[in-house]
Amino acid sequence: MISRILDSKTKNTISRAVEKRSLAQDRRSAYKSTFFRVILQAALLLTMLILLVLLVSVFLNGTDHILSRLGDFLNGTMRSRSVDEKLGVHQALYGSLWIVIIVAVCAFPLGIGAAIYLEEYAPENRFTAFIEVNINNLAGVPSVVYGLLGLALLVNGQIFGLDRITGGRSTLSAGLTLAVLVLPIVVITASEAIKAVPNSLREAAYGVGATKWEVIRTQVLPYAAPGVLTGTLLSVSRAVGETAPLILVGAVSGRLGPNPGLFEMSALTDKFTALPLVITSWTQQSGRDVGFTAAAAAAIVVLLVVVLVVNSVAIGLRNRFEKKRG
Amino acid sequence: MTDASTGLQAITASHLQISPLRRLREMVVRHTLLVAVLVSVMVSALILWSLLSEAWDFIVHVVWSDTWGQLGWFPRRGIYDIPTILIPTFIVTLIAMIVAGPLGLGAAIYLSEYAGSRVRSWIKPILEILAGIPSVVLGFFALTWIAPNLVARIGKNVFLIIGLAILAAYVVVAARIATTQLKKLKSRATDREFTVDTGMENTTWITLTASLVVLTAVLAMGVVWFIDVWVDFIPASAGSLAAAGIGVGILTIPLVASVSEDAMAAVPNSLREASAGLGAEKMTTATNVIVPAALSGIVAAFIVATSRAIGETMVVFLAGGAADASEFTISPFDGGLTMTAAMASLASGTDNVVGEGLTFQSLYFVGLVLFLITLGLNLVAARFVARLREAY
Question: In chain A, what residues touch B282 (CB-CB under 8 Å)?
Answer without folding.
Answer: 33, 37
